[in-house]
Amino acid sequence: CFFTFSTRLEDLRVKLENEGLVNISYVIVNHQETYSQRKFHLLKESVSDYITVYQQDEQQADVWTTLNGNKDDFLIYDRCGRLVYHLGLPYSFLSFQYVEESIKIAYCENKCGNCSYMEPEIDGICENITKKADEKLAEIEPKPTGQHSHHHNLHRHRQHH
């Protein structure tokens, strides 16, 4: 199971990087249970050096308990270290778009205004992501089929500064 997860996480990392979303830190926190501890080396080998695998010490407080989460959760922080999304099952399955979209939103939105961590090229990258998302929505938007059909607009709201 962890091999599939780590492969999908690596694929997502590469996809986002190819879209221009760089300088994102990815961390996998290994569970404290004995089975997970024994499989740590396999988990670490299943991801690239761009994804950190954190091994919890059996004597320390459990990271997941401290963060009010579970071992399969995704916690997505913005560049200022604020928790933006906490996704639990089933929203944390990488086969769905929730994790990817949450990372993109955390990456692109400026919730606190002018940010010293923002780089000039990020605005262009985020505009391209929004444009692609809007094009996808336009493709799936229902088309009128008869006299009594109603046209509903699907909107996606994002802030760009």
What is the rounded Rg? 19 Å
Main sheet summary: 2 strands, parallel
* Percentage of residues in helical conformation: 25-40%
- Low-pLDDT regions: 146-161
How many helices? The count is 6
Query: How many β-strands, per DSSP?
Result: 4
Pattern of helices and strands = HEHHEHEEHH
Beta-strand content bin? 5-15%
How would you describe this structure to a colleague?
- This is Selenoprotein P.
- Residues 3-161 form the Selenoprotein P N-terminal domain.
- Keywords: Glycoprotein, Secreted, Selenocysteine, Signal.
- This protein is α+β, with helices and mostly antiparallel strands.
- 40% of the residues lie in helices and 11% in strands.
- It is built from six helices and four strands, in the order αβααβαββαα.
- It has helices at 2-18, 34-38, 40-45, 63-66, 98-108, 120-140, and strands spanning 26-29, 51-54, 74-77, 83-87.
- The protein has a two-stranded parallel sheet.
- Strand 3 (74-77) and strand 4 form a beta hairpin.
- The protein is globular and about 45 Å long.
- The N and C termini lie far apart (41 Å).
- The relative contact order is 0.12.
- Mean pLDDT is 79; it is low at 146-161.
Write a brief structural summary:
The chain has 161 residues and is of the alpha+beta class. It has helices at residues 2-18, 34-38, 40-45, 63-66, 98-108, 120-140; strands at residues 26-29, 51-54, 74-77, 83-87.
List the helices and strands and how they pair.
Elements: H1 2-18, E1 26-29, H2 34-38, H3 40-45, E2 51-54, H4 63-66, E3 74-77, E4 83-87, H5 98-108, H6 120-140
Parallel strand pairs: 1-2
Antiparallel strand pairs: 3-4
Organism: Eudyptes chrysocome
Subcellular location: Secreted
Protein name: Selenoprotein P
